[in-house]
Design a protein that fits this description.
There is one protein chain. The protein is 25% helix and 37% strand. With 196 residues, it is of the alpha+beta class. The strands form three sheets. It has a six-stranded antiparallel sheet with strand order 3-2-10-5-6-7, with no helix packed on it.
Length: 196
Amino acid sequence: AFLYLYFTPYNYRVQSTMLLKEDDTDGGTLSNSSALGEINLLSMKHKIDNEIEVLKSISLINRVFTELSLHATYHVKRQFKTLEIYGSEVPIRLSFNKLHPTAFKKSITVRRKTSGTYELKDDNGEVSTHKYGEEVSKPYGIFTVIAAQDTRTQEAIIIKFHDIRKLATAYNENMVVEAINKKASVIRISVIELVP
């Protein structure tokens, strides 16, 4: 049981709600009419359905992932397993100029050597030394490694490259976007993810 719990990754449900702005086009004078009230409900349902489809669109998810630079994820080796790190835990960032499709599913390892230099190890075992902020050109892409202001660790950071389109498609399949209530203009967005 201990081994199962140790090696099984945690799944987190990330959930948010969104209130849609209602249009006040009738000026509030005719809203007492039951016929107009039914039309308003149908109009609101149509608007909610449209917003749900927009939020579920792969192109929107793709654009968000691109703006957040999710072409790469950062990992560290722990005892018997590799963990993804994110946010303030990541001592470096990659800034991409170009990423070739051959990079997808590959990984590189970056290890700090000094406060200004790092060692880069490719999947094929090739090791090279570079300066932080210097553009690196490899067959699979052109990128720059940017270090955090502090000199936290010399621990190896494993960087895995991802195809944003495939990542967006996977997120789209796992994401649930639904109206909370038929009479309310509130949408719930939820996804189950390995990273909280």
